[in-house]
Design brief:
The complex is a heterodimer of chains A (568) and B (561). By secondary structure, chain A is α/β, with parallel strands linked by helices. Chain A is built from 17 helices and 12 strands. In chain B, the strands form 3 sheets. A 6-stranded mixed beta sheet of chain B has the order 6-9-10-3-11-12, with helices on both faces. In chain B, strands 2-1-4-5 form a 4-stranded antiparallel beta sheet, covered by helices on one side. A two-stranded antiparallel ribbon of chain B has the order 7-8. The chains are: A alpha/beta (568), B alpha/beta (561).
Chain lengths: 568, 561
């Protein structure tokens, strides 16, 4: 859908609340990896202490050599200590990266698990509304976008709180004016950055919206490319692709333009601090300046503070470089929360116990204002063969969905074996073949054995034979082991239908639901299939949604749906 | 490397922006180095001058100029950094947008024949994630490499003026720390990097399977199993990344150590040179600070080399698609489409691959302009293949398909397809409004043409019932509308396109008898002056046609009506 001004406004209004929710959620996950984060931060802080010691040693050595002209052999000790510091710092760099990674990895594993658990609790109807490309992007890219926030940003946040304070504490006794320069320029930076960062986070989420839409758009157009070509519109679509891609670039640049301001602010303060310190101690050494302890400044101290000046800003600069990670994580958290906060279907238990295997008690279903089913009262007994008849749009598929627990009725209750329906119960006792059966990546055999992957080869080949899969699989080089996938490309509609039927045959269920099973089949195959259905499901309760007279004639009873009502 | 070079060439139209980015980056880098070196030199010189100030004969030290220079450098560094960031990112995203549409353009001729071998989720991840990964090509590979190269060489040359020995050892250790170590570790990690990309792709495919086939999974109690597989896949991804992270961390630690060692070497050598009087005190500070600064220049290089394998892989995946041969070739000189639409299959034989059986065998069929033909046959008998050959999705392996006596290979495929209106079992709806979906057939149609098409397709009542009418959004693959409604939308498209030849592939499949009746009635009126080629197994469609053929094992047999 095109983005309009009012969309953006609405989006902006919500953004404050959602940002807070996203932040809380990230913090909550941060707590679960507190130990790793703390260890990574410790490694970073020890590294920073190493930097201070190293700067002091360098200043000491340079003073000794340049000013005091001490010979090299007398400086062995400082050199040895310097080497020790080097080794320590390298070790810290290693440790920080290892511990940080663990924090990120653990969070990502947790979130993926939570998403998977959530998906299983949602109704299938939910997935039809969302583009699956978008959802796949959430579990893969968006979850990965959380990584750097936990591996780098969180430990760095702790480091920023500790290291600059230590540095000021070290510098103050040596030269309080330089200490003051640090103190004044330092804390200003986070203030500015936070201000800029707020804008960046909002803009960033906006960009995520554009990105997920872009992904959905591309998937849609790639899947329909043949249709586009048929209408000679493929090259015209190129313009739209250009526009969508360009829109994405613009939105990204909007984020970056603000995000880069924060890095410019930091660059400015750290450059200015270096310049101020250099000029101050330089002029002090020359005796040209009288402020503070300028006169008594020693070369060693001057060098030390100068070496420390860029290092003072280093933790902050790194945090700024990682600020992106936070914004990206907030954006990702938003997309992830959108799924995690979806309402789960509520199936109410009910005490009323009907004796029939399937019973609809005053069931109504509304989508918004549109009535799809109105006060349905139906009882079906064990072993009955029912034809569910009605024009397309009369509500046959919705009736099936309610029975399968894919959707919840707006009013009334559906009973299965005397128990109010829920998806687990439905999956146990019903075998269902929908109109667009899905073919999974894998072999024909795997697709048939979906309900029971450990079924014996004998049972699988029986099911394949019975549903007529063998007829075409026998002609393939690998037979039932032939790899198929993605909407069964390479298979005809009739062949997909047969695989789906074999799937249902294989599953031992008391109730069989078939949605238009004879669509895509020619007359001779149709009769063959109906014979097979009769034979195989002799002992079962069978409901077939169909408008094919050949099917209806073979059934015991007909339930006619007309505009969402049962017609007698 | 060939892959990266290919995509670098695609960046060419943006060469001015790209060079501007490099210039700004160099400016920032040089001001940053100069600031540090000048400051070090300044305070050392000041200290030495301060000592000699006590000496009455001392020459006055000019402190105003370096102090001003230091402040100027601080400003240049700030401005330069911001400009660099903006320019480089803007030009990168421009290039990526360009590459995205280039990619789509390359994919168009591959549809539908060649594209059927790729999963659309896989194609999508190539078009989005892999193209995004190319941003590293400039931002993280080319730019840091040029800056480190030019800046590093400049500093090394500068150092050589004071001490060739320091310059030489620094250059060696620099190369080792910035390129050698990361390169070696990258080699070690390349298997893991590729593996993690492969795992990510397989994760995505499984995830999309899980989402799109969710109803089938739930009703077959397979949900736990599918989510376990995903979970294992995610664990595997994390493990591969963990191993690679260990290598990266080790390489970062080693690089730091080498940088420090070179600093220590420079310090020791400078001390000796100072003792021998080759260097002055201030010059020694300049040299040591110079070595300190040059290592800051190369810090982005190790991660860049780490990125190399990932970027290369992404580039290779893109080229895999764009270098595919389309199933058909466009003619060098295209004939114009004739005004009569006599179609003829001349001893056409076809099979999809050499390993597979023949689908059609020396099949001949003449369909004169205005004829109405039905082809019936068992599922899998090759009916759809025959239609696909007529539409030139594929070229016949033997024999020819002729339009008005000319081989259809001589026409431009877009022109050729403009003669055909197709209604098939699967009505592809796009994620767009109903109106946009119908207008696909004729984007510049007038309001009255659109209204006529909607009326003819029997969509009027359906659209009136919708609160948003024509603007109602139909979702991915049109899942929000029923199969019958989707077919009617496709019918409206067909009407709007008004092509002289109608290809009907099971046009009423999956429709209830009322809708089937409506669709056929509309087709009957609409097809009056057109050529009709229909594939069906339903009796209901047969009044539309004059001749019926049956396709049996790749051979056509005429049937009495």
């Amino acid at each position: 859908m095109p983005l309009t001004e009012s969309d953006n406004q609405q989006y902006f209004d919500k953004s404050k609340l959602r940002e807070k929710a996203g932040g809380d959620w990230l913090r909550m996950h941060g707590k679960t990896v507190r130990k790793q984060t703390f260890l990574a931060a410790m490694a970073g802080i020890i590294n920073g202490l190493g930097v201070i010691v190293q700067a002091w040693l360098f200043a000491f050595i340079l003073q000794a050599v340049i000013i005091e002209h001490i010979a090299l052999p007398l400086l062995i000790m400082p050199f040895v200590i310097v080497i020790g510091v080097f080794l320590l710092r390298s070790g810290c760099v290693y440790a920080q990266q290892i511990c940080g990674f663990e924090a990120g990895a653990q969070v990502r594993a947790q979130v993926r698990q939570a998403l998977a658990d959530k998906c299983l609790k949602l109704r299938p109807a939910y997935f039809k509304q969302r583009q699956s490309g978008e959802l796949a992007a959430v579990t893969l890219e968006q979850v990965d976008a959380l990584e750097l926030y936990f591996t780098r940003y969180c430990p760095q946040q702790i480091i920023v709180g500790v290291l600059p304070v230590i540095m000021i504490a070290v510098v103050m006794p040596i030269n309080w004016v330089v200490g003051l320069i640090f103190l004044c320029t330092g804390p200003l930076v986070p203030v500015f950055m936070a201000l800029i960062g707020m804008g960046a986070a909002a803009a960033n989420r906006n960009q995520f919206l554009v990105m997920t839409r872009m992904n959905g758009y591309f998937l849609d157009r790639l899947q329909g490319l043949s249709t586009l070509k048929l209408f000679g519109q493929a090259s015209r679509e190129l313009d739209t692709i250009n526009r969508v891609a360009d829109d994405f670039r613009e939105k990204t640049m909007q984020v970056l333009r603000i995000a880069f301001l924060s890095s410019a602010v930091l660059e400015f303060f750290s450059a200015v601090a270096v310049a101020l310190v250099a000029v101050y101690v330089g002029l002090g050494l020359l005796g040209r300046i009288q402020i503070g302890p300028a006169n008594g400044v020693q070369f060693k101290e001057a060098l030390f503070v100068l070496l420390l000046a860029p290092e003072f800003f280093m933790p902050l600069r790194q945090l700024a470089a990682f600020y992106h990670d936070r914004a990206a994580a907030l954006g990702a958290a938003d997309a992830i929360l959108a799924i995690l906060e979806q309402d789960e279907a509520q199936f109410k238990p009910c005490r009323d116990v009907p004796r029939s295997i399937i019973a609809f008690h005053n069931v109504s279903k509304r989508y918004g204002k549109r009535d799809v089913l109105t006060t349905i009262n139906v009882e079906i007994h064990v072993g009955e063969k029912i034809a569910l008849v009605g024009a397309s749009g009369a509500g046959k598929t919705t009736l099936f969905n309610l029975l399968l627990g894919f959707e919840v009725s707006t009013e009334g209750t559906v009973f299965l074996n005397g128990t109010a329906i829920n998806p687990t119960l439905a999956a146990q006792s019903i075998a269902w073949v929908g109109q667009n059966a899905y073919i999974f990546q894998g072999s024909i055999r795997d697709n048939i054995a979906l309900a029971d992957p450990h079924a014996s080869e004998q049972r699988i080949s029986n099911a394949a034979n019975a549903a007529g899969v063998t007829e075409f699989s026998a002609q393939l080089a690998d037979g039932l082991l032939t790899l198929i996938g993605e909407r069964g490309f390479g298979l005809s509609g009739g062949q997909i239908q047969r695989i789906a039927l074999a799937r249902a045959f294989l599953k031992h269920a008391d109730i069989i639901l078939l949605d238009e099973p004879t669509a895509n089949l020619d007359a001779s195959n149709k009769h063959k299939l109906l014979d097979v259905i009769d034979e195989l499901f002799k002992a079962k309760t069978l409901i077939i949604a169909s408008h094919d007279d050949a099917v209806i004639r073979r059934m015991d009873r007909k339930i006619l749906l007309h505009h969402g009502r049962v017609q007698l | 490397m060939r892959e990266l070079w290919f995509f670098l060439c695609l960046f060419k139209p943006y060469k001015y922006g790209l060079s501007a980015g490099v210039l700004f980056a160099l400016l920032t880098a040089f001001s940053s180095i100069a600031l540090l070196m000048l400051s070090g030199w300044f305070i050392t010189a000041s200290a030495l001058a301060g000592l000699t100030v006590m000496d009455v004969n001392a020459v006055m030290f000019n402190f105003m100029l370096p102090a001003a220079q230091i402040r100027a450098l601080a400003i240049t560094r700030t401005v330069g950094r911001y400009a660099e960031r903006l320019v480089t990112h803007d030009v990168t995203f421009r290039s990526l947008a360009g590459i995205r549409s280039w990619f789509f353009q390359q994919v168009i001729p591959l549809a539908p024949g060649r594209l059927s071998t790729l999963r659309s989720s896989d194609l999508l991840s190539r078009m989005t994630a892999d193209i995004d990964a190319l941003d590293a090509l400039y931002l993280r590979l080319l730019l840091p490499a040029v800056v480190a190269g030019v800046g590093g060489v400049a500093v090394i040359i500068f150092l050589a003026q004071y001490s060739p020995l320091i310059s030489f050892t620094t250059a060696c250790l620099l190369l080792l720390a910035a390129i050698g170590v990361p390169w070696i570790f990258n080699r070690l990690g390349s298997v893991g990097a590729e593996q993690s990309l492969v795992l990510a792709t397989s994760f995505r495919i499984r995830q999309i399977d899980l989402l799109q086939g969710f109803a089938d999974i739930v009703s077959n109690q397979a949900a736990e199993r599918f989510s376990d597989v995903l979970h294992r896949c995610s664990d595997l991804m994390l493990n591969t990344q963990r191993c690679n992270n260990r290598l990266t961390a080790l390489s970062a630690a080693l690089s730091l150590l080498l940088a420090q060692i070179s600093l220590l070497t420079a310090l020791s050598v400078a001390t000796l040179l100072l003792r021998d009087g080759v260097l002055s005190g201030a010059e020694m500070a300049l040299v040591v600070f110079g070595v300190l600064a040059v290592f800051e220049l190369v810090t982005p290089l190790p991660p860049a080399i780490q990125m190399l394998a990932k970027t290369q892989k992404a580039a290779r995946r893109l080229l895999q698609v764009t270098e595919m041969m389309p199933t058909i070739q466009e003619p060098l000189v295209a004939l114009t489409i004739p005004l009569r639409y006599d179609l003829q299959l001349d001893k056409v034989s076809f099979r999809y691959t050499e390993q597979q059986d023949w689908v059609l065998k020396a099949l001949s069929l003449t369909i004169p302009h205005g004829a109405k033909v039905a082809i019936v046959g068992a599922s899998g008998s090759g009916k759809t293949t025959l239609l696909q050959l007529l539409l030139r999705y594929y070229d016949p392996v033997e024999g020819r398909v002729l339009l008005a006596g000319e081989d259809i290979r001589q026409f431009n495929s877009d022109d050729y397809l403009s003669c055909f209106g197709v209604l098939s079992q699967r009505s592809q709806l796009f994620a767009a409004s109903i109106k946009e979906n119908i207008l696909l057939a004729k984007p510049n149609a007038t309001a009255s043409e659109l209204a006529a098409a909607i009326h003819a397709a029997g969509l009027s009542a359906f659209i009136q019932d919708l609160p948003e009418g024509l603007q109602t959004w139909v979702g991915e693959n049109g899942l929000n509308v029923s199969g019958g409604e989707a077919r009617r939308i496709a019918l409206a498209r067909l009407y709007l396109k008004n092509a002289p030849v109608l290809i009907l592939d099971e046009p009423t499949e999956g429709l209830d008898s009322d809708t089937e009746h409506d669709v056929l009635k509309a087709l009957l009126r609409f097809a009056e002056d057109k050529t009709v080629i229909m594939v069906t197994h339903r009796q209901a469609g047969l009044p539309l046609v004059d001749v019926v053929y049956e396709l049996q094992q790749g051979i056509l047999i005429a049937k009495a009506l």
